[in-house]
Amino acid sequence: MGRSRSSVTHGAALMLLFITCRECTGFTVDPPEDLVIFDPGHLGHLEIRWSPPARLINKTECPKHYQLEYFSTYKGGWTAIRTPGRSYSAQFDLMKDIRVKVFTLLSGPCTNGTMVKSKSYTELVQKPLSTGVEGTRVKDFICVFHKMENMECKWGRSAKMPATSQQNLYFWHKQLEHAEECPEYIISGGVRIGCNFTGKVLPDFTDINFCINGSSAEGALKPTFISLQIQNHVKPGATEKLYLRTAPDTQLELHWECPVGSVPEHCLEWEVEHSQEGPDGKIASQQILTQQKSLTLPLIHDDERNCFRVRSQLHKYCVDKSYWSEWSRPNCYPARCQGGKPHPRPHLLK
User: Fold this and answer.
1) Are strands 294-298 and 251-256 parallel, antiparallel or unpaired?
2) What's the chain's average pLDDT?
């Protein structure tokens, strides 16, 4: 029994000595090396690559991971990921600084089975390209995904843009091997002011990168880079059928049909504008938000004229943001005849 206790004590002493020796040797984990940012021509979707520290290349018994941190200008903060690989792809705004840093993470027998992170890191800051005539970037770039069927992007010309300049739009997403040019430009006054993607299927819930560049007699124009997801730029069609009638219990019942297009009905929310015109001609209005396609309101004063119109957008449970549709044509009770006198019966708007 005494021999067994002595053996355990001796083993513990050896383990303590092993740990102490590890600490005494000052074993540290170096940061990765050869950090580079590779641009495959995907308009902001870049590949970050690095190599393991030289001292760890031959230490195959010790698993190596890496912690990559990069500043996302779209999110306005740092993003961190851990990976056993030596490359990672991420989205960047090519008009701003690209800031990347990477640490080494080591475990296994080299670190007594614990995960050790390098105290220092390898960092790379890449400045945007300075090519192009100053003040020639396009402005007010807006994309609208009409009825979830046709994507259209437009832009404005800056005041300093040479009159003879011509813009080009290129786009890329993960389903494309290479960036492609706009399939159909929108022309106004002989210059390109937008791009129509009619017949071009663009994926939703994925980043689509755009670049608008161009040339002029004075030199290349400053490129503009934008990244967006098309489901956040949907504009539903206007409501075409709006029904209004009076109920027996002196109430106004309003209901309508979904607009034409490919927007899922369960994603729509509605704004109803209710205007009341009194005998004195004064008009009071209110807006009512609803996710139903009907509305019932009390008819309080018979001498008031009630008018309604509706519009729709996609709600926050389907997308991050959406455009409001155009308003429907109004429907009123009582309706007016051509002579201007009120008609006692409500009408159907088609």
Assistant:
1) antiparallel
2) 86
